[in-house]
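tool_call: predict_structure(chain=1)
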Amino acid sequence: MNERKLKQLNIIILITLFVGLVFIGLFVFVFAPKDQNKLEGDSIAGFSEGWILKSVDGGTDRIVKLPDKIDGDAEDLVVLMHKVPENVNGNTAIAFKTEFQNVRVMVGDETVYTNGVMNEQKLMKNAVPCYNIVDIGMAAPGDIITIYLSSGYKKYSGILPEIYYGNKSDIIFNIINNNSVGLVLAVSLIATSVILSICLLLMKNSEVNKRKSFYAFSFIFATALWSLLSNPIMQILFKNTFGIYMSSMVILLIMPVLYIMYQRCFALKRRYARMFEIGIYTYAINFLTGVIFQICGVCDFATYMIFTKILIIIGLVLLSGIMYLAADAYSDKSIYSNFLMNVLLLGACLIEGILSFFNFYKSFDGLVLQTGIFIFLVLMIVNVQKEIVKEVNSKKDEALNSLEEKKEQIVKDINTNLVFRSLNEAIRNLKDDKENSRLIYNTSVYLKNNINTMTDSKLVPFKEELEYIKAYLGMEQRINEGLIVELEDKVDNFMVPFATVEPLVENAVRNGALKSTGTPRIVLRIYERLDCFAIQIVDNGKGIGPDKRFAGTVSFKEIKKKLKSMCRAGVEVRNKADKGTVVTVKIPKEGFIIKEE
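tool_result:
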């Protein structure tokens, strides 16, 4: 991405987030109505039958069963009346949900509850969606409960909510019981996004695309927070339905900006990048327009969100198309994964919108949308983590390849021909001194194989590995004159990974035979079995095998892993205190498997 363009987009993101946080603070602490409903819970007992729907224009009263929907225009007043139940007590309350309706509840001639414009609420024409918990513990059996409902929106003016009745303790338990799963999921996603962001900050690999991951985690955090604020339990905890609702709306306006900025990171071509940038500018303007309209009273969130949700769905449709074309054009699995996640989110939004037209589905609960969002966010976390791991592995492979190239160059820089010619000349000059000439020869073979270990990682005939081992043992015998070496090489026509058996022999000599209390002794047996070729290394040391202590520069665990991966071999170690160690390498024949012991 062009650095100047990236800087501009980042400035837009920062301005959007800053303005969003400012308005959340204003809605929660400054503009919240003074007499805002303080929620305390919900009820579990039905209280929806026998309500009288009063006619305020001189018509006929009628009995209704709640919930119900009647024809009504904006700001029409709906009046419901019912007798207080016989079993009323000091802890009794009634509870019902409203979406965008002003509420007044009276017991007899006394007003016991109000919520909405009747409280001279600022910035909203109506009360925000919430649970209405009304304390009627002061009432006597036979008193009349009267509920007044009105809405500035025609869609909600005739909605008669289902009403519940019970003790406050039952109410609180019921709310927590019905909404705890969503709360736990939202909190878990928030915690996950924060932890992953911290981990990303602490990563020392500066080559990882942290910008892409931070946009992803910011979007996940914002979406999870939006879902959390939509949970009824939050209304109970903070007792400020207005502030919580307005905060969730601000976050909803910010979310598309973060999401498109994240997807912008996958744009491999400039023409695709421009499309995402147009989307970022569009939703940033939509965000600022929404909060300005809300503050100025031109159009509050309840109405503006209808336009915003349509804009979000249009954006998801266009984004899905762009991502599909990009994934198809570049055959990029990460883009294709994002495309599938985007389709899942789009499907949840469309299904939610369709179901909201039916009476049996309560759109206020948002079950389909919430479920779709949770699945989407989990997949997004997995996808981002896979991208990070992929980038880390890519950089690791690059580093390893670079290291291999440097090793090869170092080997090339060594004038091995000169070294070996000099050693051969020394051997010719010592033709009468067989012991020293043999030592020089073994040294040259050992040196040549040591140099080859830097670049040679293939399978070789065991004959070559045995030559390496013999050269090493010859050197050790000359240096340690008491060392006894017994070699039983009955077979050598099989393949082994280069420089894997020789380090085991070195360890047997250094940590085994040479530390023996008696005469140091090493036995090397190579023989054939029905299912495998076996290489047995026996020492008479103190019984400390390679699995306990290893003398080589390469670890015993790495040698076992190399033998296992390259030729399916197994390594068996048997230790006997003060009697020595037996290490057996088993190279399986075709069609056989070596079982781990």
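agent: The chain has a mean pLDDT of 79. Proceeding to next step.
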